[in-house]
Each structure stands twice: as structure tokens, then as C-alpha cells.
């Protein structure tokens, strides 16, 4: 996080307060205007070829393109985004939250100018905020259809599955835009993800070792192989006259050849 700490100090004078509210208000205004003239959204989309022809506003307006046209879905999406974005801003502080969205924006614009005729989306605004919220608050509960309770971690898992699928089957432009959309998440949480995976792998190894040790017999006869696991009713003794004091069951403790060069 040292890089982020340095960026935070340099970016502090330029941070925008209430950024979540600004995005919500901008997308709401765009949605309302698009109801009377759908062509407004076309004028807002980021199409690099048109930016190079002078339509510079597209570099900023595409951030305010609303997610979908269904009014109920839009209202729900805005409420959820405002809740999640505000939570991140409270957790990180103003500057770091600004940097989170800015890094996603820069990555998206950079990829967009590789494919001049592709329309770039503002997926970094919604998806990355959702994934960050789920990472920080995995036990937060959403109510699907206002009835079914689901922890946000499982919704995030489905989102990751969809993103990975797009990376596997999509063309190069799709892959780059997906990576651009989650670039800020990887920048902010990449180290934590790796550390958590290593920790989980270590816990799994320890658990497997514990299970293996628990399955091992404490006592096992060196003659017949009977153990306290195979027959818990047996009694076992250790012969001090044999080299290494091996273990014998109650049948062979008095009926065995002593091991080693010892006097009986």
C-alpha cells in the first residue's frame, strides 16, 4: 500500500467530496433526460473515435450513463450504489475513495483508446464498487426481491464467476475491458487477496495434517499389526527388553522373540 499512500498525499488537494452522490445525481439526470430523448445516451457514451474528432465531453459524460432503462431497476441500482459508495468513502476516507474510482476510470479510458470504434462502458463505477464493498463487508445481507436474504459475499462470487468466464471466452477487447473494470480492485486489494489465499492454503494443510495425525494409531503391535484403532478393546504394552522398546498387543507381549542382542 506504499504506492497508494504516496498517491493519497499527492492527490489530497484535488479530491472531490461527496463523489458517490455526484455520480448518483449525474446518472439520475441522464436517465430522466433520456426518457424524452434516448439519443442523449449516445451523445454521452465514450467512443474514442469521436473524442479524437473533438467531442471531448465524452471523456467525462460516459461516467454518468445510467445502468439500464427499467425505472425500478434504475432506482434500486442507485440506492444500492449510494449505500455502497458511501460506506467505502467512510471506511477509506475521501481521498482514497476518489483514487479508487479514478484508477478505474484511467484504466477504462486507456483501454478504450486501443479500440477506437468500441463503446467503453462505466463498469468500473458499479462493478468495482460492489466488489470492494463485498470484500470489506462480506457478511452484509441483501434481500433479493425484498424477501430472500443473501450475504453479499455470494453475490460477489457470482460476479467473479461471470468476470472470469468473460476473460476465458471473450475476445481480446472484452478481456481488456474486463481487466480495466476491475483494475482498481486489483490495485487496492491484490496484496490482500494473495495473502488470504496463502493463509487459506496454510490452514487447509494444517487441517489435513491434523486429520492425518488423528487417524494414526497411538499403539500398534509390531507382530500382528493390531492397533488401538482397529480394536479399541485390546491392551498394549512396550517391551523394555527389546531394542527401542517396541509395542506389543496383549497376545504377543508374553509370546515374542526379543529384538536386538539382549539377555533375557
Ends distance: 71 Å
Binned, the helix content reads 55-70%
* Secondary-structure element pattern, one letter each: HHHHHHHHEEHHHEE
**Arrangement of strands in the largest sheet:** 1-2
CATH superfamily of the largest domain: Rhomboid-like
Based on secondary structure, the structural category is mainly alpha
Helical element count? 11
The coarse overall form would be: elongated
Q: Quick one: biggest sheet?
A: 2 strands, antiparallel
Highest CATH level, the class of the largest domain: Mainly Alpha
CATH topology of the largest domain: Rhomboid-like fold
Arithmetic mean of pLDDT:
84
What are the low-pLDDT stretches, counting only 5+ consecutive residues below 50?
none
The fraction of residues in strands falls at: 5-15%
How many individual domains? 2
Total beta strands: 4
* CATH architecture annotation name of the largest domain: Up-down Bundle
| Estimated radius of gyration | 31 Å
Observed structural traits:
264 residues, mainly alpha, two-stranded antiparallel sheet, 60% helix, 5% strand, elongated
Short overview:
The chain is mainly alpha-helical and 264 residues long. Helices cover 60% and strands 5% of the residues. The chain folds into two domains: 2-202, Rhomboid-like fold (Up-down Bundle), CATH 1.20.1540.10; 218-264, no CATH class.
Amino acid at each position: 500500500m506504499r504506492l497508494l499512500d504516496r498517491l493519497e498525499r499527492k492527490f489530497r488537494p484535488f479530491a472531490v467530496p461527496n463523489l458517490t452522490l455526484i455520480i448518483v445525481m449525474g446518472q439520475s439526470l441522464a436517465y430522466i433526460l433520456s426518457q424524452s430523448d434516448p439519443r442523449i445516451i449516445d451523445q454521452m457514451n465514450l467512443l474514442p473515435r469521436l473524442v479524437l474528432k473533438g467531442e471531448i465531453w465524452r471523456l467525462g459524460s460516459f461516467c454518468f450513463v445510467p445502468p439500464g432503462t427499467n425505472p425500478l431497476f434504475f432506482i434500486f441500482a442507485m440506492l444500492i450504489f449510494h449505500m455502497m459508495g458511501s460506506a467505502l468513502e467512510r471506511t477509506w476516507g475521501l481521498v482514497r475513495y476518489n483514487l479508487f474510482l479514478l484508477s478505474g476510470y484511467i484504466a477504462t479510458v486507456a483501454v478504450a483508446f486501443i479500440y477506437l470504434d468500441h463503446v467503453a462502458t462505466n463498469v468500473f463505477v458499479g462493478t468495482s464498487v460492489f466488489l470492494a464493498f463485498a470484500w470489506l463487508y462480506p457478511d452484509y445481507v441483501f434481500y433479493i426481491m425484498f424477501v430472500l436474504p443473501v450475504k453479499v459475499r455470494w453475490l460477489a462470487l457470482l460476479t467473479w464467476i461471470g468476470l472470469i468466464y468473460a476473460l476465458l471466452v471473450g475476445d481480446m477487447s472484452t478481456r481488456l475491458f474486463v481487466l480495466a473494470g476491475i483494475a482498481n480492485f486489483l490495485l487496492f486489494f491484490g496484496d490482500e487477496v494473495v495473502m488470504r489465499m496463502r493463509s487459506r492454503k496454510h490452514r487447509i494443510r494444517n487441517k489435513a495434517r491434523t486429520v492425518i495425525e488423528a487417524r494414526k494409531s497411538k499403539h500398534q503391535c509390531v507382530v500382528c499389526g493390531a492397533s488401538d484403532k482397529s480394536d479399541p478393546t485390546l491392551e498394549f504394552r512396550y517391551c523394555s527388553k527389546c531394542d527401542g522398546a517396541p509395542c506389543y498387543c496383549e497376545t504377543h507381549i508374553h509370546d515374542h522373540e526379543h529384538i536386538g542382542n539382549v539377555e533375557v
